[in-house]
């Protein structure tokens, strides 16, 4: 995404008028006390704080302080040094000293839309103080709830990635995320009950060695290939997580391979549970054909049996990706996942203890955590099924993203 880095007006006349209204620039950045390079977004600031404010607003990031919003923001000592300090307090300070999103100049349409959202919701820029553990937990869960809403909105939207797209995991990771952007809902859903690309499930195609149907001619625009679209949606959801964005791209890719299928399946399973179905059902009304039936029911039935609540589901979904047992990630990534997993586990445990009490709470916590192994088992079964379809040459085309996630090499 190409974005203009200039914060000055576009015309000479506007520049002269603005300079006449702005007093002489102070020597120090009002955010971090580094040397100021000028007035950026209405405030004397350094280039680092200017860029940080711009990124935070345009990408609609949310940060949370674990130190009662009481962190000191300091300048970098050396050029090559990275700022390893609280981003929540740094952004709060940017807002407090007067940085305004209206001063940001952008060129790309996507960036303009994000900026318009930020300007309309300027009150959201003022981050409230976290004065207790309970308030921090509530804010964290609220943030997960909003992220889930974006995920659900994207699944129901007319954004429709096709399996023939040659995009890789890295392509999706590097692309501009549609989550949080204005999206149109897919029209004419649910689809007719008799609508189906194939009358057989993927499992039956593999069992009876029947090739998957080749779609001839243009497909209805309302048709989604959910086994593929949900992987793209899962990666986009991962990209919204702050700890995931802190990882190197190679570690991000390994986590997608390790837990992408689990994220897609827990999302579909909870949607089915919320709709009162004991089978995976999609927003267009169709049932799953890409997941082995017994593996599909493993998760949905557990959700029904446990009567899992939304907060438990949101925290479980986040725990799935915070799995340090992934053998192919770096030690740095593993340490980040361990820290995040500890935080998520504490929040989940406190939530369950509050709702189920001291007697029932601990066993309930164990049941929710045990769903992780069920999801992993389900993912392995699904990967095996798609690998088998590829090995038997029953697929009508090579699906690059699926092959990466299933770690299929030179089979088709």
TrEMBL record:
It comes from the Eukaryota. GO terms for cellular component: nucleus. Pfam families: Hormone_recep (PF00104), zf-C4 (PF00105). GO terms for molecular function: nuclear receptor activity; RNA polymerase II cis-regulatory region sequence-specific DNA binding; zinc ion binding. Residues 187-408 form the NR LBD domain. One of its GO terms (biological process) is regulation of transcription by RNA polymerase II. Keywords: DNA-binding, Metal-binding, Nucleus, Receptor, Transcription, Transcription regulation, Zinc, Zinc-finger. Belongs to the nuclear hormone receptor family. This is Nuclear receptor. It comes from Pristionchus pacificus (Parasitic nematode worm). The lineage of its organism: Eukaryota, Metazoa, Ecdysozoa, Nematoda, Chromadorea.
């Amino acid at each position: 995404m190409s974005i203009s880095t200039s914060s000055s007006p576009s015309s000479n006349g506007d520049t002269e008028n603005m300079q006449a209204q702005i007093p002489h620039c102070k020597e120090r950045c009002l955010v971090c006390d580094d040397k100021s390079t000028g007035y950026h977004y209405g405030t004397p600031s350094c280039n680092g704080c200017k860029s940080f404010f711009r990124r935070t607003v345009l990408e609609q990031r949310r940060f949370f302080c674990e130190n009662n919003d009481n962190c000191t923001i300091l300048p970098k000592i050396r050029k090559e040094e990275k700022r390893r300090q609280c981003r929540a307090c740094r952004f709060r300070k940017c807002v407090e000293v007067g940085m305004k999103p209206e001063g940001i100049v952008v060129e790309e349409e996507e960036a303009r839309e994000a900026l318009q959202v930020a300007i309309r919701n300027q009150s959201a820029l003022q981050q409230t103080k976290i004065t207790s553990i309970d308030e921090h937990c509530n804010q964290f869960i609220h943030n997960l709830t909003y992220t889930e809403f974006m995920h659900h909105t994207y699944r129901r939207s007319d954004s429709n990635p096709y399996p023939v797209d040659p995009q890789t995991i890295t392509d999706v990771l590097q692309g501009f995320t549609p989550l949080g952007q204005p999206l149109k809902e897919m029209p004419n859903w649910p689809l007719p009950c008799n609508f189906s690309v194939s009358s057989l499930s993927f499992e039956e195609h593999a069992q009876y060695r029947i090739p998957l149907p080749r779609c001839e001619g243009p497909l209805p625009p309302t048709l989604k290939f959910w086994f593929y679209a949900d992987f793209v949606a899962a990666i986009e959801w991962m990209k919204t997580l702050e700890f995931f964005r802190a990882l190197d791209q190679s570690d991000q890719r390994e986590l997608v391979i390790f837990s992408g299928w689990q994220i897609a399946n827990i999302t579909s399973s909870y949607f089915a549970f919320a709709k009162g179905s004991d089978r995976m059902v999609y927003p267009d009304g169709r049932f799953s054909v890409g997941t082995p039936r017994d593996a599909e029911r493993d998760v949905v039935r557990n959700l029904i049996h446990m009567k899992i609540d939304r907060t438990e589901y949101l925290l479980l979904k986040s725990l799935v990706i915070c799995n340090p047992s992934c053998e192919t990630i770096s030690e740095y990534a593993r340490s980040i996942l361990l820290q995040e997993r500890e935080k998520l586990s504490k929040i989940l445990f406190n939530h369950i203890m509050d709702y189920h009490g001291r007697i029932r709470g601990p066993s309930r916590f164990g049941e929710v955590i045990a769903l992780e192994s069920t999801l992993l088992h389900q993912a392995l079964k699904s990967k095996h099924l798609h690998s088998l379809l590829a090995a038997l040459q029953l697929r009508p085309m090579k699906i690059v993203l699926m092959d990466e996630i299933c770690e299929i090499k030179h089979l088709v």
